[in-house]
Amino acid sequence: MRVRTDDFDYQLPQELIAQAPAEPRDSCRLLVLHREDGSIEHRRFTDIVDYLEPGDVVVVNQTRVMPARLVGRKSTGAFAETLLLRRREDLDPMGSVWECLVSPGRRLKPGAIVEFREGGAHAPQGAPVVLTAEVLDYVEASRGGRVVRFAPAEGLTLDDAMHRAGHVPLPPYITSYEGDPEKYQTVYAMSEEHSAAAPTAGLHFTPQLIERLRERGVLWEQVELEVGIDTFRLVEEDDPTEHVMHTERYHVPQRVVDAVHKAKSEGHRVIAVGTTSVRSLESAYDAEAPAWDEPVVARGFETADDSAAVMRRGDIVVREDATTNLYLMPGSTFHVVDAMVTNFHVPRSTLMMLVSAFATREQVMAAYQAAIDERYRFFSFGDAMLIV
After folding, report:
1. What is the pTM of this model?
2. pLDDT tens column, 96-132
3. What CATH number has the domain bearing residue 83?
4. Of 142, 167, 192, which residue sits at a domain end?
5. Does residue 172 fall inside a structural domain?
């Protein structure tokens, strides 16, 4: 089936873009989409317990968001902003060189110097400069991409300086939130900070809800995908197959592989929380790896012990410090994930294409229209969808 980027567009009333998280987190609404027949239910997020069975395994992305938004001034006094995307360890193993999005893009050319004061965008008059940035080079200049070298003030580490000057970056469609920035982190986020944006489907879970799932016999496992530049991009090409996904670092440990094997062998499901968890699990699938379960017996032989028995191929395998640019869209095959928790995504995005590949485009677009009709809250701080 040939699709166009316009196929993943929809009209969203501006007032349905959530500007603050639900309080408590798990009080948001939950739209349940059944892939088998396209039926839809309207529930609360705490009701997700009703849809998970003992032996199912829930896999979340434990990444933590960096204070990646840095607002400073050039020598002219003009404001300048950088958004940290990923370290360029190939250029400096010590971690001082980053790939960034910058604004204003046209004025931040190689050689430009920006100073950042303690407190960042809210720095008081006379606050000390804690961090300096030098633009080194262009990377996708038309999109505002730059390679930037950062230097902390004397007596500070780079990490200290970035925390003193930086802010957790909220998406541009969240324009009025002034609450606790920790609300843009999941309750299970790791202590180390690696991502430029939150895995927002996980924002709905509370410690109490996680405990209820565990008491029900649901397994809880964690992967990590360092959310990067494609979170901030729409598909601009008319043909979505021409869109280039950037690489993101991810980690799928042995215990997740073991949990997936256990669930599958016992007839249970793997439920991925968020598109980043989906991409981690599906990226860890190796079509050439020997299957983890019993070998298939070749035709004409009676037992798997026979020397002519053949092994099926394909398995999820451990991935440590790996990279992925997996692009899932209608026509893609899902080898690991059986159900998905996700938010409502921006039109014309790769995330819309991913969920439309997991269900169907028609089912997803119908679900989105139902959510609009029912006045659901959309995007990062919005309501959730469970696709089963």
Report:
1. 0.91
2. 999 999 999 888 999 999 999 999 888 888 899 999 9
3. 2.40.10.240
4. 167
5. no
